[in-house]
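Tokens for N-methylhydantoinase A. Go.
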Amino acid sequence: MKLIGVDVGGTFTDLVYTDTDRGETVIHKTPTTPDDPSRGVVEGAVELCRRVGVDPASIDHLMHGTTIATNAVLEYDGVEAGLITTEGYRDILHIGRHQRPQHYSIMQEIPWQDRPLVKRRHRKTVTERLAPPRGEVLMPLDEDAVRRAARELREAGVKAIAIGFLFSYLNPAHEERAREIVIEEHPDAFVTTSALVAPQFREFERFTTAAMNAFIGPKVRDYVSHLESAMRDSGLGCDLHVMGSNGGAATAKMVAEKPILTLLSGPAAGVLGGAWSGALSGHESLITLDIGGTSADIGITVDGAFAEATARDTWIGGYPVLAPMIDIHTIGAGGGSIAHVDAGGAMRVGPRSAGARPGPAAYGHGGDQPTVTDAHVVLGRLDPKNFLGGEMSLDVDASRKVISGFADKVGLGVHETAAGILTIVNANMANAIRSRTVQKGLDPRDFALVAFGGAGPLHAADVADLLDIPTVLVPAWPGITSAVGLLTTDLKYDAVKTEFQVSTDIDLTRLNADFAAMEADLGAQLAADKVDPASVGYKRAGDLRYVGQGYELRVAFPGGVVTESVVKQVLAAFAAAHEAEYGHAFPGSPVEIVNIRVTANGEAAKIAPPSFPGGDSVEAATVHQGEAVFATPEGVTPLPTAFLDRFKLPLDTDVRGPAVILQTDTTTVVPPGWTARADAAGNLLLTKGDA
């Protein structure tokens, strides 16, 4: 099969082509077209086909990672949306849970109040009421009121409408009927329901998720539709699949209906690509570190399984979201992060960034602020003549000027200031990793650090040193790891159902029936996507908590019939998870099964594992000998440093630091005391001391 993966970034659109039959893989980068990202996707794919000499019509699948949904939320750039909800609950979206993002600040931004997804004048209420625990109808839906609300929203110019009723997660009948009425009255609107996108309890989060789906819905739907049309016009007649936040691909039709599934599309693909690269070199427990120009994304893989975000952790742009997502933590730390002095006189780095334009001073686009990239240039860790494979030259004098000016402010030498900038940004990233590992009962020393993105390999060894992580792994193509990740996954759909059963009184018949119904629904969806039933697999899980707790922990359920012994097994797993998360458990205390979940995987074709022959010798790989500045026990000191061509390095041969390893899409720094080694899978393995 011939596959193309395309990940759209802020500056470049990254593409990778693979022929699974021939084991051939080719990478490509093309400038992103911000006015219409689909144009860059199609033009890049056609150009890539031309480079490898294949007919675009012969491509079987195009896998796509997109930031359309993410940017619409972060930039508050959705459509005018409306909400129809239960009478008396008009202001749930505004009130929230009386939780403040910053508990002790008297001046703070509350996103759902400062930037409402649905303005109050567009929130309409209707009479209806369902009752727990089974969703019985207490008050029938006032259909005339729904019609009036739909007409009012249509006349107000509303383009998308979310429908969220109390307890609809128990019985979606009222929401579905209201949806039918709204479509009759406003056929041009994008209409969604809370039970469709988040059929679980917590009305504020459920309503917010539905409102966000409406807010971004038309934009994502139109983008996907336009992309499919452009693909056909260019001769790419293959299926389009879009990466979801859960680490699986979804069809274009599914994404158009539930755009909220793609909120972490690009970062999720990065975690997948990092995990794939790690597995090629025998590492299953990984910390992925994706550093770009503005931010660093951190993901965790334990024994080959991705950590998933919980209801406590799933926030996008300050809004709570009930959608399945890989647990990805993002901080403002990247090559463009600006160094500054805060009000207390302390040196800080980020989160403000110089971005792509003007970017760091070294780029020569007029940047006049000291950035992380400029610090690397001043320390000699970036080769000004071999940046982006020689396609771009760096302005060393401009970097030295901005770092020197900042050095005067902080009272340090130029090299000490540059080294201090890197020390601070590395500490910020190390602290972020601790928050996802140590604070969750995981020891980072048990993991390998996979570093990618344009700036990841520059910082990886220093970050690993701060955490005592023994191994750093740099993938073959760090700058396009997200695009590679797109070609490592399957079609993947999730279902969730609020169960509310207590361990002292489990209704096994109901529990088994609910699991079976969820698997049947997901199987039907994959069958509609023309997935071979023999290739479909199911994974079960549950959200459990002790009775009286406010939040849950997710634990796996085995497949098959759920029996009393299976329940005991699940409860034991919950106790172990609670011990790991909080440091204690309560044996014998009643446990509540809050939600049950099923994930269905439909197997898809994947990228072929790479094979690299390696070069002849380290000497032959040497581009030149130079100097780079590193922190040593004697101080910040220039040291003789070899600058090497990555793909000319011999396999399984030690390269002792200090060394700088060059390639088109990134630069890898091997500090003093570290050793790098290239393997046949194309990865660079960095270890502290002798390998």
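The chain has 18 helices and 33 strands.
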